[in-house]
Amino acid sequence: MPEIKRPNYFTSEFLVAKDFQDEQAYHRDMRHCHNRLLHTPGVVNGLEVKTDDNKLFIVKAGMAIDQNGKEIILASDTLPQPLNLTATGGIYVTIEYKDVTDEQDKDVTSGLLNQYRRITERPLIKTTTSQPTSNDVVILLAKVNLAINGNIINIEDMRTFASAKINNATLNSIVKKAGDTMTGPLTVNANLQVTKGAIIPSVGNTEASGIMFPKDPGGGTGDAAWLRYYSRTGENTTFEIGTSNNSDDHIALMASGNVGIGTTDPKYKLEVVGDIKASSIDSVKLNVFGDLYVDGNIQVKDDTLAAMILRKRQYHGIVDIDPNMPLIIHLCFESRLHIPKTIKLFLRGSLFSRAFYTELGSHTHQAAAQSISLNHSHGHNFSISSISDHTHAINVGNTGGAGKPSDHNYGGSFPSSLGGWKSGWISLLTCLTGETAAYWVSSSGSHNHSLSGGIVSNLGDHQHSITVSSTGASIQAGTQSKEYFSSLQLLVNGQPRTDSLLQLLNGWREIGNGSATHPLITSGTGVLDITSLVPQEIGNHELRFVVTQGGGKLQYNIFCE
């Protein structure tokens, strides 16, 4: 440590800027030395970190002393400012000493450049993802815990307050040597910090034992509070937490978790391992797990017992849900006795099958074309439009005999192909049959006819080749047969409550993201207290769970009590 020097002014001394700077440095250094040697670093007062909204924070005005003894003074509350960092482990807010020069303090008369007439001691507030160590010159103020979406979940106060140091010299003035006992009261006007060892108060059941708190903090007389440990008889001891004076003096256990009696791992807000004896129980909420033994009468005060029974109800199930098929639950509070004190909710998602018809009305199917043989008996009609030249076998016989013209009569003339033979044939026929201008042929001879168009009748059993086809829409195959839903939304009586539900799900950005790895699928939401989301009023209240895309199965449990 260098020698301490201070300016020594005298008449007619020529002073320069350094003389005045040395003057200021002397006083600052002596003050910092005092702070450093006689006080521990920390907050003197104020400097609380508060949230202005879900994403901004402010630091309240206050003062601190760093490990170099420098005073850090924040003259007024800061403006709301963003954290500008993301971290799942939290963000630390610190404050440190800083000298700054402001433009309005810049010298404009001397002609010198960048000279300032004043220096401002304005602290610097920083945010970091790493917790500062005891060797840092910064003062740790708070830890801000963030959700995945960047919203502030809560702010942990991590201020350590500055206190007086009891060094060896000071301690020797109080206690001369180890084992000595100090007589008389010791008043400490700051925090008393014991870094090693334990605080061991005396035992006994009087005001001179244990830990006593200042009496009458609110005025009046007779108010007191204490912690005592004493022997009742022999080895039977009692640890006593007590208050005195009147029934309005309370003892409250403000545990953020659970309180256990007879157990170090309580699973409920209050868990007692053993028997409970009470002269009276006046509560609108009594849960009994196991047997209930009553030695005497049960007296119902007002509607207490009725309310306990009416308020208890449970809704549960597993449903398919998609954008067109929401889950709707109605909570009906018929009277004030039905209005529950608490409403608990649990949700969990799972796979949902898309293999179902979405339209069961008129639709078509695509069939492949094919030939079908059909055997049946039916008639056909066929007409002959013309007969070309043809031949017949001539059957010569007697009039009236077989093969005469009545069997196969043909009116007309011989074909022109007979040429000059036609007259000879006619004469021959006339001579043989005695008939003229007509001729006949055998009915059983072989001949041909040329037919065109018409209807054929009575053809008997035969076959047809039939082609069957259809047109229209076809069955469409989906891209996948199962899926998970995305972005489950909650509406209570038609009002959006998804953001409020997400605040209960620390770190969740959305309720389901369409994948199997989302916490909704892997473990569910856990038990959520949604009492504040449902109006505590008589009537019907609708809880509607909807999704904007995808589909899935949703397991739900709602317990009212």
Detailed description of the structure:
This protein has 561 residues and is mainly β. The chain is 11% helix and 28% strand. The protein has helices at residues 17-38, 168-174, 304-311, 421-433, 498-504, 519-522; strands at residues 42-46, 49-51, 56-59, 62-65, 71-74, 81-82, 91-96, 99-100, 120-121, 124-128, 139-146, 152-157, 211-212, 224-233, 236-244, 259-261, 270-272, 313-321, 327-333, 343-350, 352-353, 370-378, 409-410, 439-440, 460-468, 482-483, 486-492, 495-496, 528-529, 539-549, 552-560.
For the structure shown, list the relevant keywords.
single chain, 561 residues, mainly beta, 6 helices, flat
What is the first-to-last residue Cα distance? Answer: 70 Å
Mean pLDDT: 74
| Strand percent estimate | 25-35%
Measured as a percent range, the helix fraction is: 10-25%
Low-confidence stretches: 354-362, 369-377, 379-388, 392-425, 427-431, 435-446, 450-459, 467-481
* Backbone CA Rg: 54 Å
The strand count comes to 31
Query: What is the 3D form?
Result: flat
Helix-and-strand structural type: mainly beta
- Largest sheet composition: 4 strands, antiparallel
Question: What strand order characterises the main sheet?
Answer: 10-7-11-12
Number of helices: 6
